[in-house]
Amino acid sequence: MAPFLTLAYVYEKTGNMTYLPWLDGWAEWALYDLPRTKYGGFQHITYVEDNEQELWDDTLMTTLLNRPQYIEEAKRQCLLHIEYLFDTKTGLFFHGWKFSTAESGPAGHNFANALWARGNSWCTIVIPEILELLELEPNDPIRASATAGFAYGILKAVLRRYIDSQYRVVGEKAIQYVLHNVDETGELQQTSYGTPMGHDLQFYKNTPLTPMPYGQAMAIMALGEYLWTYF
Q1: Among candidate residues 166, 162, 158, the one with its CA nearest the CA of residue 230
Q2: Which residues contact 33 (CB under 8 A, 6 or more apart)?
Q3: Residues with Cβ within 8 Å of residue 170, at least 6 apart in sequence
Q4: The pTM of the whole model exceeds 0.85
Q5: Can you give the pLDDT of all 231 residues of the chain as single tens digits?
Q6: 128, 144 in Cβ contact below 8 A?
Q7: Nearest by Cα to 138 from 110, 119, 162
Q8: Which conformational region is residue 88 in: left (phi greater than 0), alpha (psi within -120 to 50 degrees), or beta?
């Protein structure tokens, strides 16, 4: 779904009507036909697995389209994902949650209880994005705060005054780390390979580090936000 957010922005810019059927078709599929978990959460389907009854923090990054009915659904999905993925001890998000299909026993589990770095960066990106879509009145109380140094979300949140400007230095440190890991060809290194749910923490430690398209996209977003802020 994420490429269609880009297509939506291109459509808004160009008004090219040939894009509209693709946007409508996929948006309607996400709203009405995408498999759901218990309580109506978006089941995180990948190109390899259906991941039955699984909520992933990745999903929040791929479901925001600027239309009223989609915004309402995005708000609901954010709240549902927070309910099952948020760790109250650390203020971070677990990688995923799986609803139990058993009639008795625990309601489900958070797999390895992994507070996965990239998953938390997805959440950091989403917080200012969905706040922007909500078009809140300036006097509405904003209580969103970033707890980790993820450059795009922090810098955008500072720019939009969702969080105090003192957090800008955290975003700048993250930018320096990103730049340090971009090689001479412009490719971001040190990105973990596609990561399904792990049943122990060693699984995450063993995931290969390699350039990946989503890593490139996130670097572009972070550096673009840095340029927007300072240049």
Answers
A1: 158
A2: none
A3: 146, 149, 154
A4: no
A5: 667 778 888 888 898 999 888 888 888 888 888 889 988 888 887 767 888 888 876 665 455 445 678 778 888 888 899 999 999 999 999 999 999 988 777 889 999 999 998 899 989 888 888 888 777 666 543 322 222 227 899 999 999 888 899 999 989 988 888 888 889 998 888 888 877 888 888 888 888 888 888 888 888 888 888 888 777
A6: yes
A7: 162
A8: alpha
CA distance 210 to 181: 11
Q: Which residue has the tokens 């040190």?
A: 190
Residue with token string 């709203």: 31
Q: Are 3 and 13 in contact (CB under 8 A)?
A: no
**How many CB atoms sit inside 10 A of residue 84's CB?**
21
